[in-house]
Amino acid sequence: METASSAWLLARPAATAASFIAAFLAVRLVLMLAIGFGNDEAYTLAGARTLHLSYFDHPPLHIWLAHVASLVVEETRWVRLPFVLLFAGTGWLLFLVTRHLYGPQAAVWSVLALNLSIFFTVSAGGWVVPDGVLIFFLLAAVQALLPVLIPKQNGDKASPWRAWLLAGLWFGLAGLSKYNAILIALGLIAFIIASPRHRRWLAHPAPYFGALVAFVILTPVLVWNAHNGWASFAFQTSRGLPQSALRPAQVLAMLAGEAAFLSPWVAVPLAAALVGACRSQGRDADRLLLALSLPAIVLFSIAPLWSTRGLPHWPMPGWLFVFPLLGAWIEKRPSRWFSPIKWAIGSTVAFAVVLVVAVGLTAEGWASRGVAASGAGQDPTLESLDWTALRNADAVVAAHPAFVVTTRWMDAGKIALALGKDVQVAIFSDDPRQFAFGPAIDRFVGQDTLIIVPAPLLAQQLPRLKPYFATLDPPEHVWIGRHGRNEIELGIIRAHGLLRPYPLPYASKASATVPPSVRS
C-alpha cells in the first residue's frame, strides 16, 4: 500500500514539487492577510520609509524591497507579497539543488519538508524580514555552482566563468540581505580546500572574479558603515562577545528553540539526516552540504555558552542546506520505524493544526483570555496586534503632532505605522537602532509633542524623559485590543517645549561603540 502511494506521489516529481509549492503558496497568502505585523516587521517598514545605502540592524536588500512594495500597496499587509512569492522561488531552487545532487524523488521530499517547517513557511516564507531574501539567494548561488563542483555524468560541460560569476552575483545579494551569509561562503571555501578534486579551483581565476562581483555588490554596506562608525558591524559582533560566565543552559534553550522553529516533525528526521551524513564516508554531495550547513549550525548553537542567549533563527541558513540531505535520507527509508508516507501525512496534519491554532490565537485573541485568567503574564500574540486605534486617540487628534517620542524600538515601529508617514518618531533611549539614523529632530527644539509608551513603563521612563522638556502634563491613557477588548494600555503624555534631543549612542562619520544596553 505504502509503496503504491509513494510511487503515485513520485511518478512525476517536478509536477508534484510544483503542486506542493503552489499549495503552500496559497497557505502563505492567507497568512499574509490574516496576521498583523510583528515588532520586527513594523520596525522594518518604519525604517524603509527612507532609503539608505544600508541600515543599522541588517544590510539593506529586504528593506529596499519593502520600500518599493510600500510605494505600490502602501504600508498594508500586501507589502508582504514579494516575500511570499520569493519563497515559492526558494522552494523550486531547493528542488533543483536536491535533484542535481540526489535525484528527483529526493527533491520532492526536501521541498515538502521545507514547506512543513513553521519557521521557513511562516517567517522566512512571508514576513518582512531578511531571512527569506537571504535563503533565496544562497540557494541560487549554490545551484549556479553545482554544474562545476559536482557535474552530472554525461552532462553538458558547464562554463566555469558563467558558474562562478553567477555565484558571485547571488552570494553578493545574499550578503546584501544578511551578514550570516558569510558563513555559507566560508563553508564553500572550506569544502574546496579540503577536497583534493576541487582544490584546482584555487588556481583558477574565475572564483576570484566571482568574489570581486560579490564585493562590489556589498559596497553599499561598507560605505554606510564607514560613514557611521561601523555601527552595524559593532552591533552584530557585540552579540557574540564573551560574558562573565559559561551558561550551558542557554545552549540547551537554543537547541530547543531551533527544534521548535524547524517544527518537531521536521527537526527530528532533519537531525537524523545530518548525523547520518556526518557518520558516513559520504559522497562529494554530502561533504558539500555538510560544509555549507555546519558552520552556521555549530557556531550559533554553541555561542550562547559564552555570549548572549542567541535567537533560534540565526542558524536557519545552515539548516537550509540539510534539507537536500533529508530528502535523500527519506528516499532511502533508513529504518523500519520510519514510513515516508505516514511521516508526510502526520506532519501535514500537525502543521495544519498548529497553524490553525496559531492564527486563531493571534487574530482572535483567544490566548489573552486564558493568560489574563491565569495571571501567567502577557499574551505573546499581542506582538502582531496593529496599533491603528492610536491615531484616533483624543490626545493624538487634539495635538496633531509633527513628531512623537517613545523609548523602545519595538514600540516605535508600531507607533510609526499607526500615525503614518507625516509623523516622525524619535526614540529617547540608549537603544534607538535605525531610528537614530533617520532625520534629526533638532528642528523640533522648542516645539510641543507627545510621549507615547506602554502604561506599565511610565513610572520607569518618565524620570529619564523630564530633563528634555520644559513641562510634562499628567498622562492620559488609551487602550488597544482585538474585537473591542482592552489588551494593551498606552500612556500618552503631552510634552511642552523640547529642550534638546536625546544624545545618540552611535557616532556618525566617526568611530562608534555599541553601549552595553544595546548588546541584546
Tag the structure with descriptive keywords.
57% helix, 6 strands, disordered C terminus, alpha/beta, six-stranded mixed beta sheet, 520 residues, 23 helices
Radius of gyration in whole Å, from Cα? 25 Å
- The gross shape turns out to be globular
Class per helix and strand makeup: alpha/beta
* Total beta-strand segments: 6
Low-confidence stretches: 509-520
Average residue-wise pLDDT: 90
Detailed description of the structure:
- It contains 23 helices and six strands.
- It is of the alpha/beta class and 520 residues long.
- Strands 1, 2, 3, 4, 5 and 6 form a six-stranded mixed β-sheet that branches.
- Strand 1 (403-406), helix 22 and strand 2 (424-427) form a beta-alpha-beta unit.
- Residues 509-520 have low confidence and may be disordered.
